[in-house]
Amino acid sequence: MKAIWQNETIAESTETIIVEGNHYFPPKSVHTNFLKESKKETVCPWKGTASYYSVDVNGNVLEDAAWYYPTPKDKAENIKGYVAFWKGVKVTE
């Protein structure tokens, strides 16, 4: 799977984990040079608190377009630190 925005591959892996229809990419497969920490957080009742990144490609910023669970609840421990994308980031094979 690949996560692509602005013709750049933000993440690529054959080992994503699918949760609720979203592909979560292993941390080692994400090109962190395209990510900027965001202050946004959301809470999922069973996964825990999600932290967000904005995606920045050549100065074009897509706010809060990636999220991850730094300290997930027990049922979501398998996606700890994995990154998922939305808001126009295309996730494809």
Number of helix segments? 0
Ends apart, CA distance between termini: 4 Å
Topology as H/E string?
Answer: EEEEEEEEE
pLDDT below 50 for ≥5 consecutive residues: which ranges?
A: none
The general outline is globular
Strand count, sense and barrel status of the largest sheet are: 4 strands, antiparallel
Supply Rg: 12 Å
Mean pLDDT: 98
- Which structural class should the secondary elements be placed in? mainly beta
Tally of strands: 9
Percent strand equals: over 45%
Q: Kindly state the percentage of residues in helix.
A: under 10%
Largest beta sheet: what is the strand line-up? 5-6-7-8
Describe the structure.
The protein has strands at residues 2-5, 8-12, 17-19, 22-24, 35-44, 48-57, 60-68, 83-85, 90-92. With 93 residues, the chain is mostly beta strands. Strands 5-6-7-8 form a 4-stranded antiparallel sheet, with no helix packed on it. Strands 2-1-9 form a 3-stranded antiparallel sheet, with no helix packed on it. It is globular and about 35 Å long. The mean pLDDT is 98.
Features:
93 residues; mainly beta; 4-stranded antiparallel beta sheet; 54% strand
Short description:
This protein is mainly beta and 93 residues long. The protein contains no helices and nine strands.
Sequence-ordered SSE layout with sheet pairings:
Blueprint: E1 2-5, E2 8-12, E3 17-19, E4 22-24, E5 35-44, E6 48-57, E7 60-68, E8 83-85, E9 90-92
Antiparallel strand pairs: 1-2, 1-9, 3-4, 5-6, 6-7, 7-8
